[in-house]
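Everyone, study these two lines:
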Amino acid sequence: MTDAVATKRAGSSGLGRRILIAIPYVWLLIFFLAPFVIVLKISLSDATIAQPPYTPLLDLSAGWQGVVEWWNGLDFENYTLLTEDELYWVSYLSSLRIAVISTLLMLLIGYPMAYAMARAPKSIRPALVMAVILPFWTSLLIRVYAWIGILSPEGLLNAFLLWTGIISEPLYIMNTETAVFIGIVYSYLPFMVLPLYASLEKLDESLLEAAADLGSPPWKAFWQITVPLSIPGVIAGCFLVFIPAVGEFVIPDLLGGSETLMIGKTLYNEFFLNRDWPVSSAIAVLLLLVLVVPIAVYQNVQARQLEGKA
């Protein structure tokens, strides 16, 4: 009797564990894989003046013949267009360039901030973390509009510089890539600081003390101990800011000029202005591959390295 009860409990426990593990996979299937398949299908379609604005459509009422006609109507013309039209690949390259420069700027700014937070007294660290995440309490759109008021020729920055006599005429920062860099760095800097802080805060200070006892100067101990041990935070922070920066739309649309090309803005124009859903879907699929493939390769390399150490 006792064995039967134990077996029943073990079976129910195993079933509950499988259900618990299956929940995130079901979530990914419904909210990631299924929408991606739909977008991929639209990217293989052709634009038309209809509702929805693409063809072919799958007609199950026609039976197997309808499936065959639907399959034969799919093609890669939209992806060919992306490689032939200068607008699209220039937008991709410009987005990557702006995202890389913004990521480097955030790393240069965020690392000293995170280091200072990690070396601050423990009693004030929570307040410093709160100060970093405080901007998230306000909408991104409102914060970007605030930068318009700061960077415009009649804005606060020019007014202050003119008042101090540093400049004699207003600086034209709005509608330039400089304004885009400022907006992206400001908006995503917390995503760089927090992973760096998490890595630096866990750093064993006895390692630095041992290095000092062995005669290592502080700057050398920093480069040989602190920086290598914080690499996981650096990589996590770079991924967290680089990925959304590549597809950013709001910041370049509001702060950048007409010559500031980014793939998010190009995708928006194709989808809402040109109503070319197939081309915009192809842009989205290619952008996803550009971002996901390097991450997958990196994770694979990391997993092999961990297996090798084990």
Summary: The first strand starts at residue 46 and ends at 47. The chain is about 75% helix and 0% strand.
